[in-house]
Amino acid sequence: MAYRYEELYRLSIEDPERFWAAEAEKLHWFKRWDKVLDDSRAPFFRWFPGGETNLCYNAVDRHALGPRGDKPAIIWESPETGGSRIVTFLELYELVNRFAAVLKARGVNKGDRVLIYMPMVPEALVAVLACARIGAIHSVVFAGFSYEALADRIDDCSPKLVVCADGGVRKGKPIPLKKIVDRALEQARVKVPQVIVFDRGLERDWRTTPGRDSSWEEELERVGEARVEPERMLSTDPSYILYTSGTTAKPKGVVRDTGGYMVALHASMWQIYGCGPEDIYWSTSDIGWVVGHSYIIYGPLLFGIPTVVYEGTPDSPNPGIWWEIVEKHKVTVMFSAPTALRMLRKFPAHWIEAHDLSSLRYLFLAGEPLDEPTYHWAHETLKKPVIDHYWQTESGWPMITNHMGLEPLPIKPGSPTREAMGWKLEVVDEQGEPVPPGTRGYLVALPPLPPGALMTVWGSDEKYLESYWSRFKPHGKLLYLTGDYAIKDEDGYYRLLGRADEVINVAGHRLGTREVEEVISSHPQVAEASAIGVADEVKGEALAVFVVLKKGADESEALRQELIGLIREKIGPIATPKVLNVVSQLPKTRSGKVMRRVLRAICEERELGDLSTIEDGASVEEIRRALEALGRPVKG
Ligand code: AMP
């Protein structure tokens, strides 16, 4: 008999220590915890203090050296390169041990940072797990970020070593990863003494910097069949840093612990994703995002089941490729993003229907709101439960979801359902007071945050307090701010209504508009700029940028292209604006604040709302005309 959601959830809230201890028992601890939760320094919550464990031991050794040694751990499919490979738990164990020995030989020790800038290849997982084995803190940077973004992250976390590949491929286009690393290292203030390059033979002319760079293969050969004992990590030791965009100009490094994260992920695999020992799990995300950390790498492997690692896009070489892979490997649980489905929806259904999807039980979606038409299309075409669930980099695992391993609740399209275990959520008003059902407000979490949620921001406890816990402080409440608007209905179901801050979500990826504005404003001809998110059919949101030039600046198409190029170079192609317009002024309030909501409404051809505070109404007309001149590319 499956557990009932209500009872289990109540237990997780009323007696979190008992609830999480029962889940922690299912994993290996070198030393048992002294206490389940230490909340004496709230909002710095520490789970399983005194406990000693190791993420790599639990994700790899436990299975490799037990009855699952010959079972696939990684199923790699790369339509981009034509590659396909299976790595068993035992093979993974051997590779991870050897790479851990390489890191050790290179002087990397517990607490040192290792930056990983890798495409979706099994070696990326090996590098991550080797760090976890020796207690080095990994920071994986999405291999689509530019050299500038990489340099910023290097400067923030001062890695002792960088692991990269020679290159990657996206839609057949080569991405020169090693060259990007070289440029980032030239630019960064922090000097990184060593770089290990996994040479895939994709890029011919990358340079080796003698004394700094070495090859993955040669390093592995040098250490031979080495074995490295897993480091006894405190549950409360950091395991990784993952950068995410926020309201500040620079991304923040979210810091994750070791034991709490492990326990939460393991529990989510059965409670939320409904997995058992025979499942085959595929998250189509990338290791550079939180979904990749939690559900390409750690979640499935901690649970001892194969994880599909996919290098490619949903529609290349054809829009049936995902379903071909589901059929080939008998994938049972899949996790993707609404944007991918919106893209697939444009193609005829036969691309899906041609495949035997009988193995597939559920499709989970997260990262951005799942609109109802896409939900219905996916549900009707796949004929499987489509489960929307909500979470963020900071939470590490779902906060609002249906639980397929318990008795599932009825699905309400447009809602990710109800709270995950241990998440005490509320929708509140400006004062931090709960609002009645059906009313929009800020989505907040009440302390304690459950295991797996962020510990702090790398290098700055103050930033952690300020970004997540200070919004309602004057009212004496400790509330964790998600940054999202939501509505809770009479049945306790949530609906997410988008960000309440200046963060936008392009194709499931978070982008801080301040980051974009800083980049544009750094151009010598730019006086000021405003970046906003506007509705987009496929990507959910797209970036629109409005620029005011300095007097005498040359208002040419070349300059416009230069500014677009600047954003791509400094942040990465994901930040490519859909629209970049030069205007003579931005709509501002009389107190000088840019009226972003007005900009957004003009772009989306909606009612402009209250304009009583606008400084100069002519700005509205000018933007309208500018958009029309571009053929109205962002109609809502
Ligand atoms: P990230 O940290 O980059 O994964 O982005 C997290 C943000 O994505 C959240 O704060 C939400 O704004 C949005 N998000 C994630 N999942 C959902 C969902 N299921 N429905 C609506 N918005 C979502």
At a glance:
The protein has 636 residues and is an alpha/beta fold. Adenosine monophosphate (AMP) binds at residues 244, 290, 366-370, 388-393, 416, 482-484, 496, 499, 505, 510.
Task: Please characterize this protein's 3D structure.
By secondary structure, the chain is an alpha/beta fold. Among the domains are: 87-231, Rossmann fold (3-Layer(aba) Sandwich), CATH 3.40.50.980; 511-629, 2-Layer Sandwich (GMP Synthetase, Chain A, domain 3), CATH 3.30.300.30. The protein has 19 helices and 32 strands. The strands form ten sheets. Strands 5-4-17-16-18-19-20 form a seven-stranded mixed sheet, sandwiched between helices. Strands 7-6-8-11-12 form a five-stranded parallel sheet, sandwiched between helices. The longest helix is centred in the N-terminal third of the chain and has 17 residues, at 89-105. The protein is globular. Bound molecules: adenosine monophosphate. Adenosine monophosphate (AMP) binds next to strand 26 and strand 27.
Helix/strand/pairing class, anyone? alpha/beta
CATH architecture of the domain at 87-231: 3-Layer(aba) Sandwich
Per DSSP, the total helix count is: 19
Task: Tell how many strands the DSSP assignment holds.
Answer: 32
Question: Do you know the CATH topology of the domain at 87-231?
Answer: Rossmann fold
Strand content is 15-25%
Q: Largest sheet, if any?
A: 7 strands, mixed
Percent of residues in helices? 25-40%
For the record, the CATH class of the domain at 87-231 is Alpha Beta
Average pLDDT works out at 94
Rg value: 24 Å
